[in-house]
Amino acid sequence: MRNVITAAAILLIGASASARAQAMGSTPHSKQVTITGSVVDVSCKFGQGLQGPDHKMCAEVCSDRGIPLAILGSDGKLYIPASSAMPGDAQNARLKQFAEGKVKVSGKVFEAGGANAIQIATIEAVR
Fold it and tell me: How far is Cα 69 from Cα 51, in angstroms, rounded to an integer?
């Protein structure tokens, strides 16, 4: 449960920072990237060590219950999906079909406070 609260806090902080920056008229620094990695259930991956194809159904159920899905890049960085809409749109629905699978994602990445947020433009499965 503590991991869920931590993940939710990270998402709230990111959304809050984006809203403040937009309200102040400045655009956060971003770069257009393409990354490969795995879509992970943040709570189970980091709190329980659960991952992979055998964990897919659990990740989908957790996603439906609001547990964040994120992309663990092949570069070892965790990318938290974010929305460019204000207020932000939830991103789990876009990632759920790829839960515990490999993906190639392109979009804008924002780095701040040791975290990486990505506004997903395209996502596709990688075999």
Answer: 12
